[in-house]
Amino acid sequence: MMLDKDDEPLEPELRDAASAYHRPPEPPREQMWAEIAARRAASGTPRVGARPRRFLIWAGGIAAVLAIGVAIGRLTIRAPIVPPTLPASNPIATNAPREDATAYRVATAEHLGQAEAFLTLFKASVRQGRQEQLASATARQLLATNRLLLDSPAAVDPKLKLLLQDLELVLVQIAQLEPAHRSEDVRLITNGLENGMLVRLRAAVPAGAGATSRQGAL
Amino acid sequence: MDDRLLIARVQAGDATAARELYDAHVDRVYRMVYRIAGDPDQAKDYTQEAFIRVFERLGHFRGDSSLGTWICAVALSVALNGLRKVRRLRTREVGLDGAVELGATPREAEPDLKIRLARAIDDLPEGYRSVFLMHDVEGYTHEEIGQMLGVQPGTSKAQLSRARAKLRQRLADFAKG
């Protein structure tokens, strides 16, 4: 059978040119390791990658069965009729704080993910000498969301509040950059990013829960 | 050293073993991530993130592929997801701020083959681009690429073939028939 031309390797001159595409420099091994070690230490997981103990699996199974039982019970048993004269307790109000907390967590995770991507892009743009003023509109948008999250009654986690407050400062700085900004301002912002803001954001954003078909690669 | 033994030591909390695992794979991971991202900061960030995930998920490694391939799969996933996020944001920024192109230079006729090829590679669809870089540039086999991307080796071959076709088409005046 004849080989399709596109099954053949590229012509030598194209292959040579392709090898120059994004040619990697020497990896900053020690710098990366220091960061990895710091983040592992901060996460406080001395036993990395340990499989869950057998009793935890069993406990999880039992908890799931109990939860299903409770759910079936709630669905099948009628709620007692409350006399109209009594002050009825509002089930929505009772459940509201928990639902609020979940919604807040989801919204915060989404916001922090967007902020992390934005700051990564901003840092890369500055380094490559691009026009950073393009970032100001996005920074303003993120700033609005950040303020809403900070002012929410569900914002009770002091660590998260601190992170949002620090993020607010960075976003304000970027939002206020003028087209003819001083390079000193940009340098200060990028220094701030390198001094931990991005790392803190990454640590705060939960790892994406994608498909696990690749042995947990995703 | 046997991967299983190394993994067991890392899982037992042996810091030296964790460093050994890192040292054994970091160059390959960084190299691949850099080829995909093309930016030193992003390559550093994605490599770090990949190893943090590797250490977190070492218990999920089943040994269906080599440890190195599994680690590269984690890294590739981190890098591609990161780049997607950045791309989405870039698109949004350009939309918000009008028709100003981010860091763009006008696409004129460019006599330099390397620059034209780089642009052609940049413009490939993500799947084609990843497979092309991993196979034709980094020298991974279709089996390895399939394991990393979670696709069949045949899919990898087909994507490479299409990637080459697109590149040849874009660089027709350079490619020799």
SSE inventory with pairings:
The complex is a heterodimer of chains A (218) and B (177).
Chain A: H1 12-19, H2 29-43, H3 54-76, H4 91-127, H5 135-151, H6 158-175, H7 183-204
Helix pairs in contact in A: 4-5, 4-7, 5-6, 6-7
Chain B: H1 3-11, H2 15-37, H3 40-57, H4 67-96, H5 113-122, H6 126-137, H7 142-149, H8 153-170
The profile of the biggest β sheet of chain B is: none
> How many distinct helices of chain B?
8
Question: Which blocks of ≥5 consecutive residues of chain A have pLDDT under 50?
Answer: 47-55, 208-214
Which chain pair shows the most residues in contact? A-B, 69 and 84 residues
Question: How many individual β-strands of chain B?
Answer: 0
Mean of all residue-level pLDDT scores of chain B: 87
Which residues of chain B sit in consecutive blocks of at least 5 with pLDDT less than 50? 98-110
Radius of gyration of chain B: 19 Å
Per DSSP, the total helix count of chain A is 7
Q: Tally the structural domains of chain B.
A: 2
CATH superfamily of the largest domain in chain B: RNA polymerase sigma factor, region 2, helix turn helix motif
Report how far the terminal alpha carbons of chain B are from each other: 47 Å
